[in-house]
Write a structure and sequence with these properties.
37% helix; 2 helices; single chain; 54 residues; 37% strand; alpha+beta
Length: 54
């Protein structure tokens, strides 16, 4: 068995005022994740962000 791709789904409940911060963090988090950085050249990593506002 060989892992070729990983898809990560993030579900956040947050205040609407935090939306921009959450989107910005989602857009750059993989650059600072040691696991993602280790496997990024051999495994395709995709993410999605779903937000629920309280």
């Amino acid at each position: 068995m060989v892992v070729k791709r990983i898809h990560v789904s993030y579900y956040l409940k947050l205040d609407p005022a935090q939306r921009e911060t959450a989107v910005r963090a989602h857009n750059i988090h993989a650059n600072y994740c040691p696991v993602a950085r280790t496997i990024q050249n051999c495994v395709a990593i995709t993410t999605e962000l779903t937000m629920e506002f309280m």
